Amino acid sequence: MILTGPEITAAKHDGRLVISPFEPDQVNPNSYNVRLGPTLLTYTATEIDAHRPNPTHEVEIGQDGYVLQPGELYLGHTIEHVGSNTFVPLLFGRSSVGRLGLFVEITAPIGDIGFHGQWTLMLSPIRPLRVYAGMKIGQIMFFLSTGAIDLYRGKYQAAVGAQSSAYWRDVTKPRTVAS
Prior knowledge:
It is an enzyme of class 3 (hydrolase). This protein has a single domain (5-44, 54-147), classed as Deoxyuridine 5'-Triphosphate Nucleotidohydrolase, Chain A (Distorted Sandwich).
């Protein structure tokens, strides 16, 4: 079951859900709007290697915004710290942002129950697009889980700011593909 806007507000106030800062005007009928934080990360290597840490460059979004370029992956983050030990969060781009040609979080919208922190956003524009820190960029929905709960204890816990991939931490040795 999905939480309605009033239930999101109630769950925030009784502690079943953490959203900080919480703004009542960001509550929707069945989701909560999240805003783009002030920094972006881009990968600097021509080739990204899934088995190694990859160098990044941090960009500060200025008062005049920042123009995202097609063909580039930008890692942004939410201003809001979000988490719950009760509900499963899913984050999607807002439809009004999608209508500007910006893909937000299309490959990994589900969050783990027990994760608490700022969400890293995968941003991919189809045309040059100026974005601004603080703009409403996504919306999080919360679902009630059933069954025993095993809280998230992973590598992105308590994230602050955009997080580059830590996939390489899961790799014990390179794997070869059989032909």
